[in-house]
């Protein structure tokens, strides 16, 4: 005698998406405190050595700084567009914008490398014999702050680009989802028949559960539609975008403070 059984997926596991967003905002607040402290230190020394800071700032390449500003502003736009597209189930377009954002991060780091390597080759770095012999105390403080603040920001750019790369992979793999069910209480299902039916009720595949069954492994391919997409489904991408935006905002403050005061 055979039986027919409906095999249901496990109960939905509740995830606190609001908590994840609140956690990200709290983390971003600590980032603001970190750079806010550095900006405060900068303001104190800038007040005490205003002339030296203005003279030292002339050593920076304003064109490269402005170019990096444009690159990061563009990346903020493409990041926002990527999030908007993924909410509208436009996966390919979302990946395109996310890829452009990652590319902008790489361009930023290349420009920063060119800028830093040029200065270091000329001895313009904290503690060098050249800078100790030819620059005043205020100018040496300026270069120390410049390398510290822009270096810390560059580290955040690298971290952000890494996170976005991971999100790119996650979204790229999104159409494939794997579910596994351990056959807990499997004895109750012995002799039952598991079948896959099409939309018309016709059996496409069937098998009977017996003692040899240890685990049910089902792999499904699906394509999201706008009606099935919920805001919380992409909270990870949104949080990644928030992190990237704060990186951009910090640079918006760094650029005029470091490059334009001269």
UniProtKB/TrEMBL annotation:
InterPro entries membership: Cyt_c/ubiquinol_Oxase_su3, Cyt_c_oxidase-like_su3, Cyt_c_oxidase_su3-like_sf, Cyt_c_oxidase_su3_a-hlx
Subcellular location: Cell membrane; Membrane
Occurrences of domain Heme-copper oxidase subunit III family profile (ranges): 1-262
Gene3D superfamilies: Cytochrome c oxidase, subunit III, four-helix bundle
Keywords tagged on the record: Membrane, Transmembrane, Transmembrane helix
Listed GO biological process terms: aerobic electron transport chain
GO MF annotation: an example: cytochrome-c oxidase activity
Coiled coil: none
Keyword Transmembrane: yes
Membrane-spanning ranges: 22-45, 65-86, 93-114, 152-172, 242-261
SUPFAM superfamilies: Cytochrome c oxidase subunit III-like
Primary location group: membrane
This protein's GO CC annotations: plasma membrane
Membrane topology, from the record: Multi-pass membrane protein
Family: Belongs to the cytochrome c oxidase subunit 3 family.
Designated name of the protein: Cytochrome oxidase subunit III
